[in-house]
Amino acid sequence: MFDSFHRGTSERLDRPRYHADLGRLYTSGIGFLNKLERGQHFQERGFPSWEAFADGDWERALSLADERREDYAQELRRAARLGVRHRRLRVVEFPITPYVQWELFVLRARVEVGDEIRILDADDISNIEQTHPVPEAVILGDVVLYEVIYDEDGNAAGAEKYTDRSLIRETNAGFDALYERGERFHDFFDREIAPLAPPRVSGTPTGLRGAR
User: Fold this and answer.
1) Name one Pfam family in it (predicted).
2) Interstrand relation of 10-13 and 137-140 (parallel, antiparallel or unpaired)
């Protein structure tokens, strides 16, 4: 399903080039954006809610996450004007990490203004993760596929860019299949996240991601 990534020809983009390339293509009539998220530990330096979370101020972290609702609503209004449908699939491992616990509160704010997000238990894809986890991927229509990559310290380092149409079609089909298996966000959140006590943050989580 996702193994074909590594059979295709790609172009390595550093973080600035990746963000610039994605921004340019996003406005080119792509039709939809599919995003697959797999990592369980990241840093979001510069994102106030994550900074509060990393400092152990859980209540402030949640308050700051809620304050982003209008920003997310504006993103979706812009997407609607451009005719771009957003879908995100978040893979979650158990026990839930402090980072993911925090992130799902941020994603809840997105869902409540109309973002389409589903949750998939990592155990449900163990059959396709026998050799390695599914990649962190962003797909813009049938135009481009980015595999988000990280340096040896776990920091976001840019992306591998793929433009082969058959590879993109195959990956979109794989995403569609997993998305259909995903659980509705609020069902998962209300059952697994809402009852949890505030997480204990010991040290800074690894993996720099960039503001959400």
Assistant:
1) DUF6879
2) unpaired
Count how many Cα atoms sit within 13 Å of the Cα of residue 139 in the half-sphere of its side chain.
27
Residue 133 CA to residue 108 CA, distance in Å, equals 25
185, amino acid identity: F
CA proximity to 99, closest of 38, 46, 151: 38
Supply 105's token pair: 């509160």
Mapping DSSP to helix (H, G, I), strand (E, B) and coil, where does residue 27 land?
coil
Q: What is the CA radius of gyration of the chain?
A: 17
Q: Which of 141, 147, 89, 91 is nearest to 115 (CA)?
A: 89
Q: How far apart are CA 197 and CA 156, in angstroms?
A: 29
C-alpha closest to that of 177 among 114, 89, 104, 108: 89
Beta-strand pair 85-92/116-121: parallel
pLDDT-derived band at 207, boundaries 50, 70, 90: very low
Token pair 């949640």 is found at 62
pLDDT tens-place string over residues 55-112: 999 999 999 999 999 999 999 999 999 999 999 999 999 999 999 999 999 999 999 9
Interacting residues of 11 by C-beta distance below 8 A, sequence separation 6+:
160, 161, 163
The angle formed by the CA atoms of residues 68, 72 and 75, to the nearest 5 degrees, is: 145
pTM of the model: 0.92
Q: Can you name the residues that pair with 89 across neighbouring β-strands?
A: 36, 118
